[in-house]
Input
Amino acid sequence: MVRWSYAALLPLGAAPLGLAVACGAFDGDEAAATDGGVDATASDGSPAPDATADGGAGRCDPFAPFSTPSKVAGIADTNEVALQATLSADEKTLYFFRSKNGENIGRIVMSTRASTGEAFGPGVVVATSPDGGTYATPAVTPDALTVLLTDIRGGSSGAVTSQKIVRGTRADVAGTFGGFTSVGELDSIGAFTTHPALARGGLVLYVTSGASLASRTAWRGSRPTLDAPFSGFVELAVGNPGEEIATPVPSDDDEVLYFSTRAPSSTKYTMYVTRRTSPGGAFGTARPVTELQVADQVFPAWLSSDRCRLYFTGGTAYPDHAMYIATRKP
Output
């Protein structure tokens, strides 16, 4: 059974590795190739939106600062940790990872609310590993019938030996996910593949992947329809050489990308945001999201379609992490 560190649940960081090193400036325009798949057109066949515009009425500027974040209360007891939020488009259903402190079993939990003005409650468990592994980092398709998770495996010493993405399904939106199988199209990327995140209504998939926990970078693939496999995975040119890229979180229109990065010999993760300058093009210069650096380690989790609300995780070292929400106005 896996003895957890933050390397298993999010990125690296179970033990001090040295002094924290601030991350440098990024410029994704220098080396990224044009992506294939659904970039040229939207999922309904219409022209993709112009990524150079900040969008119509009610949409927030991705580089505008957020207000002071607040913790998401009520979803876990005082002896539990709750992380890695993803929400339905109407923001009335929340999926997240929850575990009791000191326990080596993680659960995927679903919580619902009648309106966005209400708080989420503790919810119900909708996914657990059937054979002793650990499931984490949920990403759910718009119909709420398919979930992508990270399946974490460890050796007898407790060290994490592999991470891969698995897919599970359910018959109705209130049921439990099951029938988990490996997302085989990701097998060739790296032995440690984690943190699935969906965009464009489930047609685009972001993950982090690498040969080791500390070498993971961001990748992006796409598919033409929801029942087709993902393909065309491209490593994204975000971050500086040698840095670990963690928890990529795209906007649903696939124009904006949040992620965190860790410099070598550091346990500090800093959150950044970048956006495309054209549909299918490279992501541009990333900016640090300094107002959300509530602790040494911060990780984006989910961005609302209007770009005005961001759920994220912050803390010092697992399990001392909490889920936050930050808001801003158009």
About this structure: Residues 176 and 303 are 25 Å apart (CA to CA). The chain is about 0% helix and 40% strand. The radius of gyration is 18 Å. Helices lie at 6-9.
